[in-house]
């Protein structure tokens, strides 16, 4: 589903590569934790998948497409295949829960009929039924992140990228969120989650890819956060 | 569905940026108004030219008994002199299209009639305007030929070309035309810069929305269209106001000009309807181009 072939990324005005010679293969339906200290290259990896950045060297394949060679005008189509969740939720503060989720479908030109059907389903799935009319500031952090996940998933993308989705949440809430992601994963969605939350990684026992200074230093199935150290 | 969502987004955007949308509207209004004035002035010149070149005359005023011109030497024209002038005019036939003879009485009556509402006519006495030949030329530009032939001829007081008076009027209108075109160009430049600034600001204040749109894979077109439409709406509203302003201008100004220039054809409301679509199309193109170029720069994928 996602394939990195000898990928390097050097940001302009920086002499140290953010990623150097990474090769990685994420299968369809996998759940992968990408762990590592801040600055280890986790976010860069996700940004390359979204083509928010371009690779310096190597090839990134997403759903069979060479992202590096994708012309700009086809980038929106790539992004419709990928849902994205961030640490800071990125909700629209003046729209209700329902409107925030519906927004993702509206800007893709979906019909009102489809939106009326899909949005409540998705909100129910993330456990927000009954809170459709709330504004983001009336929700707890965990609930806000659920809205963000609903928005990322409402279009049923085959891939879900999560950039430290639990970074702003307390441990219990974090675990709930990751359980939710796990449930979404079981519907067949490929999930790549960058995190440095060791508790969660240790509890879920999924595939763990550890980055350090732009290198993959570990890639094991059913791994734990600390790994071999 | 789609359209309704777009419209509601545009409405929210305009409301949030109301003051700046209004300023775009007003600047557009002033620039379109000035452009319209320039067009109207120019078409006024054209209609007047067409109208007057047919009617333009050279007047050869003969000496009256009170004529101050030295050529008259205080004596009125004699019948022989008048006949000689008449014969000379007839001999210049291809250039001279028509010759009318106006007696002192006719001149007096005409003046009285033309200025019947003015106190000027009270001071006029019979004989103040001398008798004259009104000469219509086949080519109004060749006034000089007539002037050189008749100026200083016995019994001729003054040769007067109406075109000269007309040219003075035309040159005033020309100044109005170019002046307003120049100001209009400046104002168009202002509106372009203002539109660009507005869009920059709007793109910044809505970076959350556009960021999410990009993330969920909305096309560039969908992301940019509300910005473009907002600018277009403001610009077209301004154009509408400007057209209303032009209408008001002709409505209130034309009667006043008609007093000074009786029975001359003046531009009117129909000329506005002719020029308004072009102004609207022009502003539309400006608004779309400006906003699209600005967005290319400030709203990237």
Automatic annotation (TrEMBL), chain A:
Topological relation to the membrane, as annotated = Peripheral membrane protein
Give an example GO cellular component term for this record: plasma membrane
Query: Which InterPro entries does the UniProt entry name for this protein?
Result: AAA+_ATPase (IPR003593), ABC_transporter-like_ATP-bd (IPR003439), ABC_transporter-like_CS (IPR017871), ABC_transpr_LolD-like (IPR015854), Cell_div_FtsE (IPR005286), P-loop_NTPase (IPR027417)
One short Pfam name that applies is: ABC_tran
UniProt KW keywords? ATP-binding, Cell cycle, Cell division, Cell membrane, Membrane, Nucleotide-binding
Location(s), subcellular: Cell membrane
ABC transporter domain location is: 2-226
Question: Which GO terms fall under biological process for this protein?
Answer: cell division
GO terms (molecular function) for this protein are: ATP binding; ATP hydrolysis activity; transmembrane transporter activity
Q: What does this protein do?
A: Part of the ABC transporter FtsEX involved in cellular division. Has ATPase activity.
Spell out the NCBIfam families in the cross-references: FtsE
Q: Which family does it belong to?
A: Belongs to the ABC transporter superfamily.
Q: Which PANTHER family match?
A: CELL DIVISION ATP-BINDING PROTEIN FTSE, IMPORT ATP-BINDING PROTEIN
Tell me how this protein assembles. Answer: Homodimer. Forms a membrane-associated complex with FtsX.
Q: What is this protein called?
A: Cell division ATP-binding protein FtsE
User: Native species of this protein?
Assistant: Knoellia koreensis
UniProtKB/TrEMBL annotation, chain B:
Could you tell me which InterPro entries the record lists for this protein?
A: ABC3_permease_C (IPR003838), FtsX (IPR004513), FtsX_actino (IPR047929), FtsX_ECD (IPR040690)
Q: How does it assemble?
A: Forms a membrane-associated complex with FtsE.
Q: Name one GO cellular component term.
A: plasma membrane
Residue span(s) of domain ABC3 transporter permease C-terminal: 182-300
Task: Name the family.
Answer: Belongs to the ABC-4 integral membrane protein family. FtsX subfamily.
List, alphabetically, the Pfam families matched. Answer: FtsX, FtsX_ECD
Q: What is its main location?
A: membrane
* Lipid bilayer topology: Multi-pass membrane protein
Q: Which UniProt keywords apply?
A: Cell cycle, Cell division, Cell membrane, Membrane, Transmembrane, Transmembrane helix
Presence of keyword Aminoacyl-tRNA synthetase: no
- Outline the extent of the FtsX extracellular domain: 56-159
Can you name the source organism? Answer: Knoellia koreensis
**Keyword set includes Membrane:** yes
Q: Which lineage ranks, top first, belong to the organism behind this chain?
A: Bacteria, Bacillati, Actinomycetota, Actinomycetes, Micrococcales
Q: Which GO terms describe its biological process?
A: cell division
- Membrane-crossing ranges are 20-41, 175-199, 227-252, 272-295
Q: Where in the cell is it found?
A: Cell membrane
Q: What does this protein do?
A: Part of the ABC transporter FtsEX involved in cellular division.
> What protein does this entry describe?
Cell division protein FtsX
